[in-house]
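Quick one, tokens below. Sequence please?
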């Protein structure tokens, strides 16, 4: 009888523990979904395509699916309304936009080639860029370091990006911690020649876009650490390579001369200068 009572007590206690655990798991899952549903991803893409075309894209992605899954209808409506507002903000200022159910895609600039870009922006090729470039010379390669201003930092409060950010901040429950920033640099050159660095990135990844035949460098920034990006362009150091060629040529010529002399000496044939 005592054993039966103990067993019953243990079953009751175990049932209570399992029930509490399930409640905690459900609450945690709901909290996770609600937190993720607030995430907003802002991506600036600078693409230099293999055919020579140039394109800058700005994308705002909103997690409406997360809001809908958590049945937060008010948040879902706020996100949806903000998509429309941001689209109108950029399109009303002459930018080409593409709006979807979950995002706004803005074409900031687009040129068929660099020549058109230079002409449109008054770049002559004689501009002094020394202050924006540092060169590190190694024996075989030279690395050119160019500073890229972080596109997510605008000092002018009336800039379109800041106005869009202000609209996002109006969403109830949204703050800067809910926003993720990504900088993308697409180029036809392999990572061994082109790379990106930043002081405080969360991550820097490189993938290959087979459709556009370019390598895509993606920099994800930490919260409140929107530092400038450094573009590293690695090119061969011709002086170093020429030196190697000359050294190899000199070694081969010397080896040939020694070989000929040894052969002539063995055969009893006098040297040419003799």
């Amino acid at each position: 009888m005592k054993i039966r009572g103990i067993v019953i007590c243990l079953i009751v206690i175990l049932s209570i523990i399992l029930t509490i655990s399930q409640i905690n798991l459900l609450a945690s899952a709901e909290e996770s979904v609600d937190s993720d549903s607030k995430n907003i991803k802002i991506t600036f893409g600078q693409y230099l395509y293999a055919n020579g075309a140039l394109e800058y894209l700005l994308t705002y992605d909103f997690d409406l699916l997360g809001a809908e899954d958590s049945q937060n209808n008010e948040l879902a409506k706020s996100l949806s309304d903000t998509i429309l507002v941001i689209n109108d903000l950029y399109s009303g200022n002459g930018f080409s936009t593409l709006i979807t159910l979950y995002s706004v895609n803005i074409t900031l600039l687009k040129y068929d080639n660099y020549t058109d870009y230079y002409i449109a922006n008054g770049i002559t090729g004689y501009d002094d860029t020394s202050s924006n470039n540092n060169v590190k010379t190694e024996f075989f390669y030279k690395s050119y370091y160019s500073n890229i201003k972080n596109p997510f930092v605008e000092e002018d409060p009336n800039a379109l990006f800041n106005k869009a950010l202000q609209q996002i901040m109006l969403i109830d429950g949204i703050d800067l911690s809910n926003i993720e920033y990504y900088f993308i640099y697409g180029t036809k050159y392999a990572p061994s020649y082109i790379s990106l660095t930043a002081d405080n990135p969360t991550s820097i990844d490189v993938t290959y876009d087979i459709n556009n035949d370019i390598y895509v460098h993606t920099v994800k920034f930490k919260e409140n650490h929107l530092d400038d990006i450094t573009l590293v362009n690695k090119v061969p150091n011709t002086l170093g390579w020429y030196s190697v060629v000359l050294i190899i040529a000199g070694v081969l010529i010397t080896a040939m001369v020694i070989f000929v002399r040894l052969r002539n000496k063995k055969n009893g044939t006098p040297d040419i200068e003799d």
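The chain has two domains: 37-236, 238-274. The first helix runs from residue 2 to 36.
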